[in-house]
Amino acid sequence: MSSTLQSTAPSLTADYPRASLGHFPTPLEALTRLSTEAGSQKPLWVKRDDCTGLAFGGNKVRQLEFYFGDALAQGATLALITGAVQSNFVRTAAASAAKLGLKCLVQLEERVAGKNETYSTSGNVLLNHLLGARVEYFPVGEDEHGADAALEQHAAHARAAGEVPYVIHLSEHPRPLGTLGYVVAVEELVSQAASMGLELSQVVVASGSAVTHAGVLVGLRALGCDDVRVVGACVRREADAQRARVMRVAQRTEELIGHSGVVRECDVVVDDTFLDPGYGHMNAPTRATLLSAARTEALLVDPVYTAKSLACALEWVKRDDVSGDTVFMHTGGTPALFGYATDLWEMM
Ligand SMILES: Cc1ncc(COP(=O)(O)O)c(C=O)c1O
Protein backbone atom coordinates (compact mmCIF):
# COMPACT_ATOMS: atom_id res chain seq x y z
CA MET A 1 0.00 0.00 0.00
CA SER A 2 1.50 3.37 -0.98
CA SER A 3 1.89 6.19 1.55
CA THR A 4 -0.98 8.10 -0.04
CA LEU A 5 -3.40 5.29 0.73
CA GLN A 6 -4.79 4.73 4.19
CA SER A 7 -6.48 1.74 5.70
CA THR A 8 -10.04 2.31 6.90
CA ALA A 9 -10.21 -0.75 9.19
CA PRO A 10 -12.40 -1.53 11.04
CA SER A 11 -14.78 0.45 8.84
CA LEU A 12 -17.44 -1.20 6.68
CA THR A 13 -15.33 0.12 3.80
CA ALA A 14 -12.08 -1.55 4.87
CA ASP A 15 -11.83 -3.64 1.67
CA TYR A 16 -11.40 -0.59 -0.53
CA PRO A 17 -8.30 1.52 -1.17
CA ARG A 18 -8.74 5.08 0.05
CA ALA A 19 -6.57 8.08 -0.75
CA SER A 20 -6.01 10.44 2.17
CA LEU A 21 -7.39 13.81 1.05
CA GLY A 22 -9.61 15.38 3.70
CA HIS A 23 -9.58 16.64 7.29
CA PHE A 24 -11.62 14.33 9.49
CA PRO A 25 -13.64 14.15 11.66
CA THR A 26 -15.60 17.21 10.64
CA PRO A 27 -17.29 19.12 13.49
CA LEU A 28 -20.86 18.49 14.66
CA GLU A 29 -22.41 21.74 15.93
CA ALA A 30 -25.77 23.09 17.09
CA LEU A 31 -27.43 25.82 15.01
CA THR A 32 -29.25 27.38 17.93
CA ARG A 33 -29.81 30.90 16.65
CA LEU A 34 -30.85 29.82 13.16
CA SER A 35 -33.24 27.18 14.53
CA THR A 36 -34.90 29.71 16.83
CA GLU A 37 -35.30 32.19 13.98
CA ALA A 38 -36.88 29.42 11.90
CA GLY A 39 -39.41 28.76 14.65
CA SER A 40 -38.07 25.42 15.85
CA GLN A 41 -38.26 24.46 19.53
CA LYS A 42 -35.27 22.16 19.09
CA PRO A 43 -31.89 23.05 17.63
CA LEU A 44 -30.98 21.70 14.23
CA TRP A 45 -27.47 20.19 14.27
CA VAL A 46 -25.00 20.57 11.44
CA LYS A 47 -22.34 18.10 10.35
CA ARG A 48 -19.71 20.42 8.90
CA ASP A 49 -18.70 18.56 5.76
CA ASP A 50 -18.16 21.97 4.24
CA CYS A 51 -14.98 21.75 6.35
CA THR A 52 -13.44 18.62 4.82
CA GLY A 53 -10.44 20.77 4.04
CA LEU A 54 -9.22 20.11 0.52
CA ALA A 55 -9.41 23.29 -1.61
CA PHE A 56 -12.59 24.58 0.09
CA GLY A 57 -13.80 21.07 0.97
CA GLY A 58 -17.33 19.70 0.73
CA ASN A 59 -18.91 16.25 0.40
CA LYS A 60 -17.09 15.32 -2.76
CA VAL A 61 -13.79 15.11 -0.89
CA ARG A 62 -15.11 12.09 1.01
CA GLN A 63 -16.30 10.50 -2.25
CA LEU A 64 -13.05 11.24 -4.06
CA GLU A 65 -10.95 9.51 -1.40
CA PHE A 66 -12.37 6.25 -2.77
CA TYR A 67 -12.27 7.14 -6.48
CA PHE A 68 -8.66 8.27 -6.19
CA GLY A 69 -7.83 5.26 -3.99
CA ASP A 70 -9.03 3.12 -6.90
CA ALA A 71 -7.23 5.31 -9.46
CA LEU A 72 -3.90 5.04 -7.60
CA ALA A 73 -4.33 1.28 -7.22
CA GLN A 74 -4.74 1.10 -11.02
CA GLY A 75 -1.65 3.21 -11.65
CA ALA A 76 -3.61 6.10 -13.18
CA THR A 77 -1.73 9.16 -14.42
CA LEU A 78 -4.75 11.23 -15.50
CA ALA A 79 -8.16 11.73 -13.84
CA LEU A 80 -11.14 12.78 -15.98
CA ILE A 81 -14.39 14.17 -14.66
CA THR A 82 -17.48 15.99 -16.00
CA GLY A 83 -19.97 18.30 -14.26
CA ALA A 84 -21.88 21.57 -14.36
CA VAL A 85 -19.85 24.75 -14.93
CA GLN A 86 -19.91 25.52 -11.18
CA SER A 87 -19.47 21.85 -10.19
CA ASN A 88 -17.88 21.25 -6.81
CA PHE A 89 -17.15 17.65 -7.75
CA VAL A 90 -15.04 18.86 -10.67
CA ARG A 91 -13.18 21.39 -8.50
CA THR A 92 -12.40 18.89 -5.74
CA ALA A 93 -11.33 16.28 -8.32
CA ALA A 94 -8.92 18.84 -9.80
CA ALA A 95 -7.65 19.48 -6.26
CA SER A 96 -7.31 15.76 -5.50
CA ALA A 97 -5.35 15.18 -8.69
CA ALA A 98 -3.04 18.09 -7.93
CA LYS A 99 -2.41 16.83 -4.40
CA LEU A 100 -1.74 13.26 -5.51
CA GLY A 101 0.43 14.19 -8.50
CA LEU A 102 -1.98 13.16 -11.28
CA LYS A 103 -2.99 15.22 -14.28
CA CYS A 104 -6.65 16.21 -14.51
CA LEU A 105 -9.05 16.88 -17.38
CA VAL A 106 -12.34 18.48 -16.40
CA GLN A 107 -15.33 18.81 -18.72
CA LEU A 108 -17.84 21.56 -17.94
CA GLU A 109 -21.46 21.16 -19.10
CA GLU A 110 -23.69 24.12 -19.93
CA ARG A 111 -26.44 22.99 -17.52
CA VAL A 112 -27.75 26.28 -16.09
CA ALA A 113 -29.36 28.70 -18.55
CA GLY A 114 -29.22 32.47 -18.32
CA LYS A 115 -25.92 32.85 -16.47
CA ASN A 116 -23.38 35.61 -17.00
CA GLU A 117 -19.61 35.92 -17.23
CA THR A 118 -19.12 35.85 -13.47
CA TYR A 119 -20.77 32.43 -13.40
CA SER A 120 -18.49 31.21 -16.18
CA THR A 121 -15.22 32.51 -14.79
CA SER A 122 -15.39 32.87 -11.00
CA GLY A 123 -15.94 30.44 -8.10
CA ASN A 124 -15.22 26.84 -8.96
CA VAL A 125 -14.21 27.68 -12.54
CA LEU A 126 -11.42 29.95 -11.35
CA LEU A 127 -10.27 27.26 -8.91
CA ASN A 128 -10.15 24.58 -11.64
CA HIS A 129 -7.67 26.75 -13.52
CA LEU A 130 -5.67 27.62 -10.40
CA LEU A 131 -5.41 23.91 -9.60
CA GLY A 132 -3.90 23.25 -13.01
CA ALA A 133 -6.68 21.20 -14.61
CA ARG A 134 -7.17 21.09 -18.37
CA VAL A 135 -10.68 22.49 -18.97
CA GLU A 136 -12.94 21.24 -21.78
CA TYR A 137 -16.59 22.08 -22.45
CA PHE A 138 -19.68 20.00 -23.30
CA PRO A 139 -22.60 21.91 -24.82
CA VAL A 140 -25.53 19.93 -23.33
CA GLY A 141 -26.50 20.11 -19.67
CA GLU A 142 -28.99 17.29 -19.30
CA ASP A 143 -27.32 14.35 -21.00
CA GLU A 144 -25.42 12.33 -18.42
CA HIS A 145 -24.63 9.51 -20.83
CA GLY A 146 -23.55 11.91 -23.59
CA ALA A 147 -21.27 13.76 -21.18
CA ASP A 148 -19.73 10.49 -20.02
CA ALA A 149 -19.27 9.34 -23.62
CA ALA A 150 -17.45 12.58 -24.45
CA LEU A 151 -15.25 12.04 -21.40
CA GLU A 152 -14.47 8.49 -22.55
CA GLN A 153 -13.35 9.92 -25.90
CA HIS A 154 -10.95 12.27 -24.12
CA ALA A 155 -9.73 9.25 -22.13
CA ALA A 156 -9.17 7.25 -25.33
CA HIS A 157 -7.08 10.05 -26.83
CA ALA A 158 -5.05 10.30 -23.63
CA ARG A 159 -4.52 6.52 -23.56
CA ALA A 160 -3.24 6.65 -27.13
CA ALA A 161 -0.80 9.34 -25.99
CA GLY A 162 0.59 7.09 -23.25
CA GLU A 163 -1.47 8.17 -20.21
CA VAL A 164 -3.28 5.79 -17.88
CA PRO A 165 -6.71 7.50 -17.64
CA TYR A 166 -9.21 7.09 -14.81
CA VAL A 167 -12.74 8.27 -15.59
CA ILE A 168 -15.08 9.38 -12.79
CA HIS A 169 -18.52 8.91 -14.33
CA LEU A 170 -21.50 11.22 -13.94
CA SER A 171 -24.20 8.72 -14.84
CA GLU A 172 -25.20 5.88 -12.53
CA HIS A 173 -22.40 3.37 -12.26
CA PRO A 174 -22.43 -0.29 -11.24
CA ARG A 175 -19.70 0.45 -8.64
CA PRO A 176 -20.54 3.83 -7.04
CA LEU A 177 -17.34 3.92 -4.98
CA GLY A 178 -18.05 7.48 -3.78
CA THR A 179 -20.88 6.19 -1.61
CA LEU A 180 -18.24 4.55 0.59
CA GLY A 181 -17.14 8.03 1.65
CA TYR A 182 -20.56 8.56 3.16
CA VAL A 183 -20.57 5.16 4.83
CA VAL A 184 -17.41 6.40 6.56
CA ALA A 185 -19.12 9.73 7.30
CA VAL A 186 -21.98 8.07 9.16
CA GLU A 187 -19.59 5.88 11.12
CA GLU A 188 -18.00 9.16 12.20
CA LEU A 189 -21.35 10.84 12.85
CA VAL A 190 -22.82 7.99 14.90
CA SER A 191 -19.79 7.88 17.16
CA GLN A 192 -19.70 11.69 17.51
CA ALA A 193 -23.42 11.88 18.27
CA ALA A 194 -23.06 9.20 20.96
CA SER A 195 -20.14 10.94 22.64
CA MET A 196 -22.04 14.27 22.62
CA GLY A 197 -25.22 12.72 24.04
CA LEU A 198 -27.37 13.27 20.94
CA GLU A 199 -30.23 10.99 20.08
CA LEU A 200 -30.00 10.75 16.32
CA SER A 201 -33.48 10.76 14.73
CA GLN A 202 -33.00 12.34 11.31
CA VAL A 203 -30.30 13.27 8.84
CA VAL A 204 -31.15 15.72 6.05
CA VAL A 205 -28.86 15.77 3.03
CA ALA A 206 -28.84 17.23 -0.49
CA SER A 207 -29.72 14.53 -3.02
CA GLY A 208 -28.29 15.04 -6.52
CA SER A 209 -26.40 12.11 -8.05
CA ALA A 210 -27.70 10.30 -4.92
CA VAL A 211 -24.21 9.11 -3.99
CA THR A 212 -24.17 11.01 -0.68
CA HIS A 213 -27.79 10.15 0.14
CA ALA A 214 -27.29 6.43 -0.62
CA GLY A 215 -24.04 6.28 1.35
CA VAL A 216 -25.65 7.85 4.42
CA LEU A 217 -28.70 5.60 4.23
CA VAL A 218 -26.87 2.33 3.63
CA GLY A 219 -24.23 3.23 6.22
CA LEU A 220 -26.83 3.88 8.91
CA ARG A 221 -28.81 0.72 8.15
CA ALA A 222 -25.66 -1.42 7.99
CA LEU A 223 -24.68 -0.04 11.40
CA GLY A 224 -28.08 -1.08 12.75
CA CYS A 225 -29.50 2.46 13.01
CA ASP A 226 -32.86 1.33 11.62
CA ASP A 227 -34.94 4.17 13.04
CA VAL A 228 -32.88 7.12 11.83
CA ARG A 229 -34.76 8.78 8.99
CA VAL A 230 -32.66 10.06 6.09
CA VAL A 231 -34.31 12.86 4.11
CA GLY A 232 -32.91 13.70 0.68
CA ALA A 233 -33.56 17.27 -0.39
CA CYS A 234 -33.93 17.11 -4.18
CA VAL A 235 -31.60 19.50 -5.98
CA ARG A 236 -31.63 18.04 -9.49
CA ARG A 237 -34.79 16.00 -10.20
CA GLU A 238 -38.31 15.72 -8.89
CA ALA A 239 -39.21 13.36 -6.06
CA ASP A 240 -40.34 10.26 -8.01
CA ALA A 241 -37.30 10.13 -10.27
CA GLN A 242 -34.96 10.88 -7.39
CA ARG A 243 -36.51 8.24 -5.11
CA ALA A 244 -35.96 5.57 -7.78
CA ARG A 245 -32.40 6.72 -8.35
CA VAL A 246 -31.55 6.69 -4.63
CA MET A 247 -32.88 3.12 -4.33
CA ARG A 248 -30.77 1.91 -7.25
CA VAL A 249 -27.61 3.56 -5.93
CA ALA A 250 -28.35 2.25 -2.42
CA GLN A 251 -28.64 -1.31 -3.70
CA ARG A 252 -25.27 -1.04 -5.44
CA THR A 253 -23.79 0.39 -2.26
CA GLU A 254 -25.17 -2.51 -0.24
CA GLU A 255 -23.42 -4.88 -2.65
CA LEU A 256 -20.14 -2.98 -2.31
CA ILE A 257 -20.09 -3.41 1.46
CA GLY A 258 -21.70 -6.86 1.57
CA HIS A 259 -24.93 -5.83 3.33
CA SER A 260 -27.55 -6.52 0.69
CA GLY A 261 -31.16 -5.79 1.57
CA VAL A 262 -30.64 -3.43 4.54
CA VAL A 263 -32.47 -0.55 2.83
CA ARG A 264 -36.23 -0.95 2.27
CA GLU A 265 -38.24 1.08 -0.25
CA CYS A 266 -39.89 2.94 2.63
CA ASP A 267 -36.47 4.07 3.89
CA VAL A 268 -35.99 6.27 0.83
CA VAL A 269 -37.45 9.66 1.76
CA VAL A 270 -37.07 12.55 -0.66
CA ASP A 271 -38.46 16.08 -0.56
CA ASP A 272 -38.52 18.28 -3.66
CA THR A 273 -40.21 21.29 -2.03
CA PHE A 274 -37.15 23.49 -2.54
CA LEU A 275 -36.13 22.24 -5.99
CA ASP A 276 -38.24 24.82 -7.80
CA PRO A 277 -37.40 26.56 -10.18
CA GLY A 278 -34.83 23.85 -10.97
CA TYR A 279 -31.18 22.86 -10.79
CA GLY A 280 -28.88 25.78 -10.12
CA HIS A 281 -31.65 28.31 -9.43
CA MET A 282 -33.05 29.52 -6.10
CA ASN A 283 -36.61 30.38 -5.06
CA ALA A 284 -37.58 32.94 -2.40
CA PRO A 285 -37.50 30.62 0.65
CA THR A 286 -34.12 29.23 -0.41
CA ARG A 287 -32.70 32.74 -0.74
CA ALA A 288 -34.09 33.65 2.68
CA THR A 289 -32.45 30.56 4.20
CA LEU A 290 -29.09 31.41 2.65
CA LEU A 291 -29.19 34.91 4.16
CA SER A 292 -30.55 33.76 7.49
CA ALA A 293 -27.82 31.11 7.94
CA ALA A 294 -25.13 33.68 7.18
CA ARG A 295 -26.59 36.29 9.52
CA THR A 296 -27.47 34.13 12.52
CA GLU A 297 -24.66 31.57 12.49
CA ALA A 298 -22.08 32.87 9.99
CA LEU A 299 -22.83 29.57 8.25
CA LEU A 300 -22.30 29.90 4.52
CA VAL A 301 -24.45 27.73 2.28
CA ASP A 302 -24.40 27.68 -1.50
CA PRO A 303 -27.16 28.55 -4.00
CA VAL A 304 -27.22 25.20 -5.83
CA TYR A 305 -27.24 22.54 -3.11
CA THR A 306 -26.95 23.50 0.52
CA ALA A 307 -29.30 26.50 0.69
CA LYS A 308 -31.98 24.10 -0.60
CA SER A 309 -31.08 21.24 1.73
CA LEU A 310 -30.82 23.58 4.73
CA ALA A 311 -34.24 25.08 3.95
CA CYS A 312 -35.54 21.51 3.83
CA ALA A 313 -33.83 20.55 7.13
CA LEU A 314 -35.38 23.56 8.88
CA GLU A 315 -38.81 22.20 7.92
CA TRP A 316 -38.14 18.58 8.92
CA VAL A 317 -36.68 19.50 12.34
CA LYS A 318 -40.06 21.03 13.24
CA ARG A 319 -42.10 17.90 12.53
CA ASP A 320 -44.10 16.44 15.41
CA ASP A 321 -43.04 12.87 14.68
CA VAL A 322 -39.38 13.58 15.49
CA SER A 323 -38.48 12.80 19.09
CA GLY A 324 -34.70 13.10 18.94
CA ASP A 325 -32.13 15.19 17.13
CA THR A 326 -31.97 16.23 13.48
CA VAL A 327 -28.64 16.66 11.70
CA PHE A 328 -28.23 18.74 8.56
CA MET A 329 -25.35 17.39 6.49
CA HIS A 330 -23.62 20.51 5.17
CA THR A 331 -22.17 19.20 1.95
CA GLY A 332 -20.22 22.38 1.11
CA GLY A 333 -20.26 24.07 -2.27
CA THR A 334 -19.29 27.47 -0.90
CA PRO A 335 -17.01 28.54 -3.80
CA ALA A 336 -20.15 28.70 -5.97
CA LEU A 337 -21.18 31.75 -3.91
CA PHE A 338 -18.68 33.72 -5.98
CA GLY A 339 -19.94 32.29 -9.26
CA TYR A 340 -23.44 33.39 -8.24
CA ALA A 341 -22.30 36.83 -7.02
CA THR A 342 -24.65 38.68 -9.40
CA ASP A 343 -27.74 36.82 -8.10
CA LEU A 344 -26.61 37.30 -4.51
CA TRP A 345 -26.09 41.05 -4.88
CA GLU A 346 -29.61 41.31 -6.30
CA MET A 347 -31.17 39.78 -3.21
CA MET A 348 -29.40 41.97 -0.62
C1 LIG B 1 -22.11 21.01 -2.43
C2 LIG B 1 -22.83 19.80 -2.88
N1 LIG B 1 -23.76 19.28 -2.08
C3 LIG B 1 -24.47 18.20 -2.45
C4 LIG B 1 -24.27 17.59 -3.67
C5 LIG B 1 -25.09 16.41 -4.02
O1 LIG B 1 -24.37 15.24 -3.72
P1 LIG B 1 -24.62 13.93 -4.53
O2 LIG B 1 -24.23 14.21 -5.94
O3 LIG B 1 -23.74 12.93 -3.89
O4 LIG B 1 -26.07 13.61 -4.44
C6 LIG B 1 -23.30 18.09 -4.54
C7 LIG B 1 -23.11 17.46 -5.85
O5 LIG B 1 -22.52 17.94 -6.75
C8 LIG B 1 -22.55 19.22 -4.13
O6 LIG B 1 -21.61 19.74 -4.91
Task: Describe the protein in words.
The structure is a single chain. The strands form two sheets. The protein has a six-stranded mixed beta sheet with strand order 1-2-10-7-8-9, sandwiched between helices. Strands 5-4-3-6 form a four-stranded parallel beta sheet, with helices on both faces. Helix 2 (59-73) crosses helix 7, helix 3 packs parallel to helix 5 and helix 7 packs across helix 8. It is of the alpha/beta class. The protein has helices at 32-37, 59-73, 88-100, 117-121, 124-130, 144-160, 179-195, 211-222, 239-257, 284-297, 306-316, 336-339, 341-346, and strands at residues 28-31, 44-48, 78-84, 103-109, 134-138, 165-168, 200-207, 229-234, 269-271, 325-330. Strand 8, helix 9 (239-257) and strand 9 (269-271) form a beta-alpha-beta unit. The longest helix has 19 residues, at 239-257. The protein has 13 helices and ten strands. The chain is globular, with a radius of gyration of 19 Å. The protein has two domains: 28-58 and 176-346, Rossmann fold (3-Layer(aba) Sandwich), CATH 3.40.50.1100; 64-168, Rossmann fold. The structure holds pyridoxal-5'-phosphate (PLP). The site of pyridoxal-5'-phosphate has 19 residues, from helix 2, helix 3, strand 7 and helix 8.
List the helices and strands and how they pair.
Blueprint: E1 28-31, H1 32-37, E2 44-48, H2 59-73, E3 78-84, H3 88-100, E4 103-109, H4 117-121, H5 124-130, E5 134-138, H6 144-160, E6 165-168, H7 179-195, E7 200-207, H8 211-222, E8 229-234, H9 239-257, E9 269-271, H10 284-297, H11 306-316, E10 325-330, H12 336-339, H13 341-346
Parallel strand pairs: 2-10, 3-4, 3-6, 4-5, 7-8, 7-10, 8-9
Antiparallel strand pairs: 1-2
The structure holds pyridoxal-5'-phosphate.
